[in-house]
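Marked as duplicate of an earlier ticket. Keeping the data here for the record.
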Amino acid sequence: MIIRRYLVKETLKTQSAILFILLLIFFSQKLIRILSSAIEGNIPHDLIIPLLVLGVSNMADLILPLSLFLGVLVTFGRLYSDSEMVAMQACGVKKNLSYQVVFLLCIMTCLLTSINSIWFGPWSSLKQDQLVENAKINPSLAGLLAGQFQQTPDGNSVIYIGNVDKNNLDSIFIAQVNPKNQQRPSIIIANKGKTGIDEEGNQIINLEEANRYEGTAQQKDFRISNFHNYLAVIKPKEIVSNENEDEEKLDVQQLGVIELYHTNTAKAKAELYWRLTLIVSVPLMAFLVIPLSVSNPRQGRLAQILPALLLYLIYFLLASSIKANAGKGRLDPALWFYIINLSYFIIAIILNCWDNLFMRKLRLKYIVS
């Protein structure tokens, strides 16, 4: 049907535009936080793009339901304001066509939300933690910043590099202030150097024309060595996991739905019903916004947008509050999940049936009486 395709096209076009704008806003905020961490030296610069891509999952949690909600609200509101919807109904197009269009878009959005909540979200959260943890334990030599004194993660050495150009280093200064195995403090100075990775995957640094000064001022016993090539190998450290520590630091955002269901902790239950809320909210809020998008051409756009946004904000503020309190064991997330969603489902039914023939007769009867 031509009209059905037209409504789907217009609504999908508006939803895509809103999704892009919201994604761009959240993406910019995420980029600022990651760049701040990179400037402070908490993460290497080569992890900026991977962390940004993996962070899309957290953004999509709230953006996908909101994009469909605003897409239906704006598109249908414009059609009513321009009298296009009235003209369609005058030509014999039934009102059920609007529900068919919204139902089709709900299926598409629900599918994306389910994939993000069930699979991509936990996987991206786990991957982000692994990348950051690996960067802290095994810092990349390619991530060294020029013109800054940087301390190694173990706190034993301080590194300064005058200039970094890909794998080429200039003006290198390495001070080993806390040597191990009863070694004396030492300083290494080199004009040039290169970084790379050997066949076993170890990080290597090759310094050309390096001088090593070993000793302390108190003992007045210095050893000066000159090297044409000074090669250092940095072997990656292995992460030793403790089962008790893993249980205490369990991140429920990295668990699948089945694992959350079988995990008897307050945080796991709260996370489970939060993900279910994200999926259920797509058809629920889309069903709710259909009657709220109906507007009179004489009315302003804010007449239908403000009440709809208010109901949407209240819904997700309640859901977020329940997640926070349920994670601390203060309330039962299952009970409040059904209370909130059933309450909004009843409100949606009332709003959708408010202008039908039965409700008109009922309102007329009570108003006249």
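See parent ticket for discussion. Confidence is low (pLDDT under 50) at residues 241-249.
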